Amino acid sequence: MHEDYYNKLMDLFHPPSWSDIFAQWIAIGLFICVNLFVNTVLGAIVGAGTGWLFSHSFVGPWILRGFNVLGANVPEGDLYALGAAAGFISGFFKSPLVKKGA
Known about the structure:
Structural class: mainly alpha
Radius of gyration: 25 Å
Shape: rod-shaped
Number of helices: 4
């Protein structure tokens, strides 16, 4: 009877095989790749939508004038493209949600 408990306990501490470790690393890598893809696509979609909204608001000409002052000649109505580019780039830099305070 005690041998059964001992064997179950030893099974818990049995080191995993190399194939198990390799499969876990492959799964983690796949998760990271899918997560990056989803974040960048969603960032581009949200950025394009935001740029489109800004281009149809009173803020649009101010943003275009600001880019033109900086030397980036942005054609009229291309804020959706700038928003999509900014959203795509920000998709790589998502921070984890952290609850501050107790």
